[in-house]
Amino acid sequence: MNLLTGATGFVGGHLVEYLFQQSEISKATFRPGSHLKILDLNGVQCVEADLLDHHSLHEAVEGTDTIYSMASPMPGDGEDFQRVNTEGISNLLEVAKESGVKTLVHLSTLDVFGLGAGTVDVGSAMRPRDPYQRAKASAEDVLLDFARRNKQPMVVIVRSARATGPRDWTLAVPLLRMISNRKVIVPKGAEMSFAHPKDIAKAMYRAATGQAAPGGVYMVKSFDSTTESLAAALAESVGVTTKVARAGPFSRPDLPEYTARQLEGSLRLAPQASWQAIGYSPDYDLEKTCKEIAAWYKKEPWVAEQP
Question: Spelled out in words, what is the top-level CATH class assigned to the domain 2-164+195-222?
């Protein structure tokens, strides 16, 4: 039995679908107000719980072999992401240990290296400056400290490049809006690494079921691209002819602030020999990702009309 925290989020929803396709039985934590449609469609048992409420986690974790840890508020969500990534992760690890969970796979981000770090590898030094980046790095510190002191559950960390794909409301949808208006402005930045959420889901599953090392850190991506190339490929997939321009003194991209900073930072992931250990290789490239986003958009064109 799997337990997913953060299953109603962007990557979480894709992991729910991936596990269902693997015939895995899963349950997921949720909080009041969460949208549960994707969980219901994929046969996931929903358990109300909060990482900051230690007692609420016991029912959720009971009977679980594997935990996929993805709960982490994003900047601008108005939630205390520092507490969730420290106190919340500590609570989850403690209850997992008490309940005999075998494996915990945690989703982190390349942002722990600090935006603008250039090309990074697993041995690169973390230099988080932003509060959100520091929170994600703190979560890793908690997890790796636990892994050094405990054999079970086995802790594995998956650091993902900037995720984008269908249902990505912070990058794909804003780009679709600009494309539909035929005026696409993107932040300045060099080539950077992106990850399709289905590739992230596969990496997390392989980390849980393959030959991952206890306390291992696996960094994953799908492809490298400039933001201009991403926007142009998406416009072509949608079937819209438009120019793509970089931001200037009198033009700004219509993107969430943190997303724009990520794109300007241009974090790029070096090739990873460690992928072989968990049997991971990306299924998605730039073209395939944009075609899948376009197919989703054509089914639900209203997404580009939302504020």
Answer: alpha beta
